[in-house]
Amino acid sequence: MRLHPATTERAVVTLLWAMAGITICALAFIIIFILAHGLPHISREFLADSPRSMGREGGIFPMIVGSALVAGLAVLIAAPIGVATAIYLTEYTREGRLTAVIRFGADCLAGIPSIIFGLFGFVFFAIVLGMGLSVISGALTLTLMVLPTIIRTSEEAIRAVPQAYREVSYGVGSTRWQMVTRVVLRSALPGIGTGIILSLGRSISETAAVMLTAGSALRMPQSLLDSSRTLALHFYILSREGISMTNAYATASVLIIAILALNLFAYWLMSRFVARVR
Amino acid sequence: MNCPATPVEPRIETRDLCVSFAGKPALKEVNLCVYPCERLAIIGPASSGKTTFLRCLNRLNDLTHSFSHAGQVLFDGREIYAPGVDVSDLRRRIGMVYATPMPLPWSIYDNLAYGPKLAGIRNRVMLDERVETSLRSAALWEEVKDRLREPAHNLSGGQQQRMCLARVLALRPEALILDEPCSGLDPISTGKIEDALAELKSRHSIVLVTNNTKQAARSSDRTAFFLMGELIEVGATEQVFTNPVDKRTNDYLIGQFG
Predict the structure, then answer these.
(1) CA distance A262 to chain B (A)
(2) Tens digit of pLDDT for each residue in A162-184?
């Protein structure tokens, strides 16, 4: 049976709309469900206080600090390494066995379940290097976990910069490094930024890896060598051990809002940057 | 063949320049001189080595990994492929305009100031002055003087190419090499660029690669004809066009091939 092209077109458009609609609806349902259960319990005290009786009472302030420390530190370490690797792969070396190995390694790393990263981090950072269950152990573990994402997204962004820009830059007498910093990175920054934000989001929401490396202490971390519980882990423990479902939902709401705010802020920054450059 | 005897020292000179890419020869023993204050046009069919020759002069071929060369390229009597040559400095002294307009995704001003800034000029007044004089030389100043902060992408194709010429002039180069700079442009824009080149030849050596033989006839002092990587002949433009020495030049000019 052969359909009229216009009929096919209509059918395809409807189908695509339906698919997009299902995705949006599922996402919206989850977010609304959690916010509906959690938002009513969020108060100034909940955000600013320390938890009491295992989190059944009190607030989540130490967890907010813990999340910010672990995820922030992880991205702070991973971003320069990842972007530098991407620059090396795209601008400073020829395609060859070495680049293939690095890229294959990054892809493998990206496919490893986070609990394995957690196990590795626990053995290597916490025990072998003697950092114990701490903010720094957790951050370093997350660094390894998000590194592939940053490398590959940065690489894509750098590759998308037209080759002609590089020739123009060389043509007016730039060195390679000047070309990379003033032309390539300047054009690739929105793409690189997106990768970094994705990584930050993933670091904040990661649970299994930080449970094994940053631990789950309820008190406020005093140093990077202290154990700290992140928001995601707090939510997991509250719900898993049946401590307080209301506080679990409230914690999840804070987590969702934080990630949403982070993304919006980042996109705002990026659009401002793009507007300035173009 | 050798450079014709003249009282002036050549600005650019190639001696037995051979180039190959991944072992495949692209230029064979090219001996060609460019003198101060002249416009040399290079004509020839596709893949005759015109662009390759041009890109040897500012060492842009270095970016191609499979590139290898033999022979000499002299600029003001000095071998530019000698170890220790400052390639950035060379590219500032021999400015190149590409076949397609390539504005960087910045404002007009930033496009023009990029080269001078790389050369270490930080002074605002000096940068402004360079931007203005080079835009004037490229016959673009009047059209863009009120919109220097606008994105260069907003310019028309012809304006973009004149901006690219201005961007190179902002380097204060001694020689200009242009790779089919008018190939995508309308006749009016082409005319403006040709006029600018006629003006510029009083201060620069100009090498113009072109697929448009009429353009070569119009706006060059000497013409060189390349075929399959060889320099077939070079001479005064009028002589090459009216009375070429080599039969192949004549065949090309009357449209037998290419």
Answers:
(1) 28
(2) 999 999 999 999 999 999 999 99
